[in-house]
Write a structure and sequence with these properties.
The complex is a heterodimer of chains A (about 80) and B (about 90).
Chain A lengths: L1 H17 L3 H21 L3 H30 L2
Helix pairs in contact in A: 1-2, 2-3
Chain B lengths: L2 H18 L1 H5 L4 H26 L5 H28 L1
The chains are: A mainly alpha (about 80), B mainly alpha (about 90).
Chain lengths: ~80, ~90
């Protein structure tokens, strides 16, 4: 199961790097954070999984969406 | 079949169905499709976390599922608000 999750991590990271749309990249980053949290959980580290779930899924996604909205407003006069 | 093996089979089934529903996230035509896919995968992985906590018989592990549910909802809400505002501007 660990090998499957690690292969999924690599696949998702490459797709995030080559995607040209900002919103697609943010949504895929949320999925990557979700699988990363599951990997930490399966490896018997629930505290790391807790931090990854709080920071990666919630705060990071919220922050990226906020910044994308702010910068789009500045570019579009 | 004992209880441990049944838990293991159910966890593998949930992770497999999560990987299958990753297809909608990777190749959704619009952002709403990707958002629905993220929501489905989030629910399935949440079930895996709760099942793993029940299998290991440790109720400390349930906190991870609780915190992920709250903060994942915040993230999905932020993406949905951004998508709705962008659609309203068109």
């Amino acid at each position: 199961m660990t090998t499957l999750l690690l292969a999924l991590h690599v696949l998702l990271a490459v797709i995030i790097l080559v995607s040209r749309n900002m919103l697609t990249a943010v949504i895929l980053l949320a999925v990557l954070s979700l699988f990363s949290s599951l990997l930490f959980f399966i490896l018997h580290a629930p505290d790391v999984a807790l931090t990854e779930a709080a920071v990666g899924a919630g705060v990071s996604t919220f922050l990226y969406i906020w910044i994308i909205r702010k910068t789009e407003m500045e570019i579009k006069p | 079949m004992n209880t441990q093996a049944a838990f293991s089979v159910i966890i593998y089934l949930f992770i497999g169905s999560g990987v299958i529903s990753l297809y909608r996230v990777l190749s959704g035509p619009t952002a709403a499709d990707r958002l629905i896919g993220l929501n489905i995968i989030s629910a399935q992985i949440l079930a895996v976390l709760v099942l793993f906590a029940a299998m290991e018989n440790m109720h400390v592990y349930l906190d991870v599922a609780l915190v992920y549910d709250i903060f994942g909802f915040v993230g999905i809400l932020a993406i949905a608000r951004y998508t709705g505002k962008k659609e309203a501007l068109k």
